[in-house]
Amino acid sequence: MIIYGDSLSGNCYKIKLLCSLLNIEHQWIEVNIMAGETRTSEFLAINPNAKIPLLITKQKQPLAESNAILYYLAQDSQLFPQSVLQQSLCLQWMFFEQYSHEPYIAVARFINKYLGSPADRLQELESKKEGGNRALAVMEIQLQKTPYLLGDEMSIADISLFAYTHVAYEGGFDLNEFPAILAWISRIEHQKDFIHIG
What we know:
Elements: E1 2-5, H1 10-21, E2 27-30, H2 41-46, E3 54-56, E4 62-64, H3 66-74, H4 84-114, H5 122-143, H6 156-165, H7 179-189
Parallel strand pairs: 1-2
Antiparallel strand pairs: 1-3, 3-4
Helix pairs in contact: 1-3, 1-6, 4-5, 4-6, 5-7
């Protein structure tokens, strides 16, 4: 398999982390978005949406969207639940990540870390912090009840939300306000074959 990605991107890190945890052999091709490498005619021929991560399966099928790639790669592994209800709860958290979490925490991180919090985006940054803190509060409630988002076992729901949560401080979020999340981050970081972002 081939994976196109940017090692500093949380969405790409999800895939890199999953591959490490499950020992999935693959070829990683580093892509520089800022240099326009997803806008070349060669890349657009594979993914017209011009985004990474992008997986090329063994059958040469391109597959985009980070959580869809997680779903594909985790089938028949300990990181994807067996019951339909647990699978649905897993997808619920992954949809939550894309709609209620990533648009706030990842964007705040980008504005703060990569753009240097320019004056013309400070108001946007503050609004992102408000939405991000709401998402973190939702996670905190669940993680006060169970070690992982689906219960006692780690799943791709945890990987999906871990990617940007564990670096949320880079977007100006104070994770000390969320002790259950901090404990969850530690549990994931102590998994066998865990790798850091970057």
